[in-house]
Amino acid sequence: MKIWTDQNYPIIISCAKALSRWTEQEVLAMGYKPIEVTENTVVVRGAMRDVFRLNLQLRTAHRVLVPLLRTTCRGIRDLYEAVRSIDWENLLDADGYFSVSSIAHNRTIRDTRIPSLYTKDAIADRMRERCQQRPDSGGDNIGAAVFVYWERDEVIIYLDTSGEPLSKRGYRRIPGSAPMQETLAAACLMGMGWKGDRPFLSPMCGSGTPAIEAAMIAMNKAPGSLKGHFAFQSIKGYGRIIPGEKAPTVAPRQTAGATPEQIWKEMVLEAKKEERRDNLPRIIATDISPEAVDNAQTNAITAGVAEFIEFHACDFAETPVPEVSAPPPGETKGCVFFNPEYGIRLGDPEELKPIYARIGTFMNEKCRGWTGALITGNPDLAAQVNLYYRNRIPFFNGPIDCRLFIYEGCELKGQNAS
């Protein structure tokens, strides 16, 4: 296929399990009409500019994929032949670099590394045959990328336009222990209704991910603007002029067309112009560990949002809560988000019970009239919070089956839930 000039092809947006609902919301808000939604994919149709825009703007997605071939595949030799049949000489530079990742659920595969290795060999053999040279390959996310999805007797081979997953924004230089993935944090904020128009509290902030994602939403900062490299930048023809494409302002004297590289740079510049920096709500992040607070600040600096977040080293119950005037009808005063230990990867469940009870007390006493949210993989611990919850949204934090509890108004059970 001609990825730079074809105007209407399927674009598969992959996401973590249970996040497609939120990715679909993002896609709809961007003006796209999904043609298919599964548990972990959203499919739209579009062209080069749409591939760029989705990589730049999506907060809850992992990859933006363009399918190259879908075929029957019963064994590893079938995979090799299928991959070799694709015109890689039109997609990859012979002196470039590419990586391959794969997921295979086929009874003939015992070693999960084999599909990626055979895919690399098939691409290299095709390139050597057609170009008398082959690109280097490996596991680094520095060039083009290919993704293989093999389910039973069917395989789909994709050009991965993202490369390193979109969940890795590039700002979390110091992750801390059991950090929350950026895409999950963004989905949780969407689930609790955070739009960047009210104060936001992140007690137990850890490495700072929820507060940083909240600030990026408030600023209207495109998450992809932080990444140094996307795999589409290494697809063959990225720097060549496409006749008929509107020349962007980054190349004002060029009239014959524009290169994908110029179009991408223009899109990033436009996204930066759309960022808000005035009259943002207060965003406050706290942690009992001074080291965690220092790490969170470092990550916020890298993300370019540190000036919009207040950091404090203190017990979560001492988190400063801003005074907020009466909100408009149907709105709450602000949002407060907790991601405590679950007693699975970290912490002992019995020792965590009083902490969860204190979280409920803090939200009820200090955050009445706010929207509270808590994500946990332990329903017994969630019961200790003892607040009315409006909603309980399923999420997965890695392999852990979690629920995001939404406490509208932060009212204790037994109180009048008006």
Mind explaining what this structure looks like?
The chain is of the alpha/beta class. It folds into two domains: 217 residues, 2-Layer Sandwich (VC0802-like), CATH 3.30.2130.30; 173 residues, 3-Layer(aba) Sandwich (Rossmann fold). It is built from ten helices and 17 strands. It has an eight-stranded mixed beta sheet, covered by helices on one side. The chain is globular and about 70 Å long. The model has no long low-confidence stretch (mean pLDDT 93).
Number of strands: 17
CATH class of the largest domain, named Alpha Beta
How many structural domains are formed by the residues?
A: 2
How would you classify the helix and strand content by structural class? alpha/beta
Beta-strand content: 15-25%
* Cα-to-Cα separation, first versus last residue: 58 Å
Instruction: Kindly report the average pLDDT value.
Output: 93
Secondary structure: helix percent: 25-40%
Our count of helices gives 10
CATH topology of the largest domain: VC0802-like
How are the strands of the biggest sheet laid out side by side?
2-3-1-4-8-7-5-6
Unreliable spans are none
